[in-house]
Amino acid sequence: MSFFKKLKDKFSKTEENQEVSDKYKSGLSKTRGSFSSKINNLVARYRQVDEDFFDDLEEILIQADVGVNTVMDLVDELKMEVKRQNIKDSSMLKDVISEKLVEIYAGDEETVKAELNLQPNDLSIFLFVGVNGVGKTTSIGKLAHQLSEQGKKVVLVAGDTFRAGAIEQLDVWGQRVGVEVIKHSEGSDPAAVIYDGIQAARSRNADVLLCDTAGRLQNKVNLMNELSKVKRVIEREVPSAPHEVLLVLDATTGQNALSQAKTFSEATNVTGIVLTKLDGTAKGGIVLAIRKELNIPVKYVGLGEKVTDLEVFDAQAFVYGLFADMIESSDDESLDS
Ligand SMILES: Nc1nc2c(ncn2[C@@H]2O[C@H](COP(=O)(O)OP(=O)(O)O)[C@@H](O)[C@H]2O)c(=O)[nH]1
Ligand SMILES: [Mg+2]
Question: Which residues make up the CATH 1.20.120.140 domain(s) of the chain?
Fold first, then answer.
């Protein structure tokens, strides 16, 4: 069965899957608009798959921010696949490219879908880190909504005590999604409010505590010291925590996001990425670069500003979003070879 057909089947099977693919489809419309029209163009220009074809393909992938090393690996794999299947006709390659993109992301793992490290019978503590403006507070609000909808008791703690308005912004999210927010006044010690957050979460018997933090990168040393201190306080209170350190990155900042990830990884043990604003970029290939070049899983993606616009990262749904037009317009019979 062709890969397009496989994706088409999967994402039309249940209402839930359909909803997921619709979200990726609309969130990735900018990337798809540029990426899939370029691929279609490429295939129209080269009927035969040759060296020039691959050179142009490399260029398209690099422009989509896939990352040079990842592109090299991907193109090598594609060349092998072309040989193996004896593919001559370039139009057959769209399907193979989409399949390789999932493979390159997910590797040999069966898990193409990310999961949070939730503690089944205990408090889970997730720390959100990242520079100003990337979407930490917004993502916390969205995730709080999602977890509450799943029946979990969520508490938020306003650890960004530095920026004016940051505490209030989290408070507004808390009211909006109906969860409690633990806060101190502006300028107070972030580690102290996080400590209070843990005590409150415990006494309320909460399932999940989501910790916001400040992200001023102008003073890198201070920021990293502050994060270490916050982390120490969490570890002292709950030795197995934090159960996730989620680094929030803004997809529209492209390669800059990769360098932020390197800086934060040096200072703290990042367990996953929340990649926001994918809806705002035509270069959604950054997801693959992050996975391959940093070896940190993307756990969530932000696909818009609405409270429901945060999705668990799913490599197949991502690729569906990239190729949706081709997948949906492909007729089943010709694919069934
Ligand atoms: N379009 C879009 N905007 C987002 C997304 N996530 C966050 N934002 C916006 O990014 C801006 C900064 O977000 P904020 O949560 O305050 O960032 P923080 O400084 O890291 O806490 C806000 O205007 C958000 O609405 C997303 O996935 N898509
Ligand atoms: Mg914030």
Answer: 3-112+319-330
